[in-house]
Specification:
disordered C terminus; 2 strands
């Protein structure tokens, strides 16, 4: 049977339940064409990725006793998803601010996790105060200008700082530390050697960045070719046309990419602590989300225990 037999048209754009939109950004998904009560259905629903992965991350942090900064970061990650849900559902400016500013604040948590590691309380406190000041400046400036380019530039600079700093830490601090411990370790100990551990990290970094940047590319193509894509959607009709919602794909892919880089930092933290003999980055394939697990919770460990 033809696809057309299972499709139906969009409603014409209209004013919906939440009334006049006050946001400074409006995306290629047309307003209220799928629901009277939700302005952008696809852009709203896809934020479930942030909620699911955020809860998953918090549960893992509690279960394995990861440092407090990481469950706090995952809370910020969830707030991003909640803010984005309300932003796209209502198209109201206050909800846009919750979404966009939570992105900045959550990245500031990652900066603190990166640069406060193994530093004195005085340094950590000063860094925290400085980041609060930076977050306040970005908030005030963005609220004053309402310029989305300013927000996007600030977020991009902070994210690049975190990513490249952790790349540097991996090679200049972590690699020598792992190698020194490996040379002192007795043979036949169940710990990845330095080369294997760093190779796995680099593959995970490349995968996370590819997903994140892939989502950014799709979103930009969605913006540039919006009129053409909207025409295609109306030709294909619902429900099949939802696969052409580029900003929705951005939500899914940036949610996964951001999760990758939080887990990446957790694993760096554990290895810097010298806990690579107690924990393992469990990432059996690119189709499985990475986790930092205690050794006894790895699948092959569980099987070994059953055999004993």
């Amino acid at each position: 049977m033809e696809m057309a037999s299972f499709s139906f048209p969009y409603h014409e754009p209209r004013e919906g339940f939440w009334g006049e939109k006050t946001v400074t950004l409006n995306f290629c998904e047309e307003d209220y064409v799928m629901s009277y009560y939700c302005a952008e259905v696809c852009n709203t629903i896809t934020n479930v990725m942030f909620l699911w992965l955020g809860v998953r991350g918090i549960k893992d942090c509690i279960k394995y006793g990861h440092p407090l900064i990481f469950p706090i970061t995952f809370i910020g990650y969830i707030i991003v998803g909640c803010g984005s849900t309300l932003f796209h559902a209502t198209l109201k400016y206050p909800m846009q601010l919750v979404d966009e500013l939570a992105m900045v604040y959550t990245t500031c948590f990652m900066i603190h996790a990166t640069f406060a590691y193994a530093r004195s309380f005085r340094f950590s406190f000063a860094l925290g105060v400085g980041l609060i000041g930076l977050a306040y400046f970005i908030t005030a400036k963005y609220y004053e200008t309402k310029n989305p380019d300013f927000h996007q530039a600030a977020y991009a600079i902070l994210t690049v700082l975190v990513v490249f700093s952790n790349m540097w830490i991996m090679e200049k601090i972590l690699r020598p530390a792992l190698k020194a411990r490996e040379d002192k370790r007795p043979p036949n100990v169940d710990v990845l050697n330095t080369g294997e551990a760093l190779s796995q990290m680099w593959i995970m970094v490349a995968t996370g960045l590819s997903i994140f940047l892939g989502g950014y590319l799709i979103w930009n193509l969605d913006n540039i070719y919006c009129n053409t894509i909207r025409r295609w959607r109306h030709q294909i009709q619902l429900p099949w046309a939802v696969v052409l919602e580029g900003h929705a794909w951005w939500h899914l892919m940036t949610g996964i990419g951001a999760y990758y880089y939080i887990v990446w930092r957790i694993w760096i933290h554990r290895c810097l602590d010298g806990d690579e003999d107690k924990f393992r980055l469990y990432w059996p394939s690119v189709f499985h989300l990475p986790e930092v697990r205690a050794l006894e919770d790895l699948p092959f460990r569980g099987q070994d225990k059953k055999r004993q």
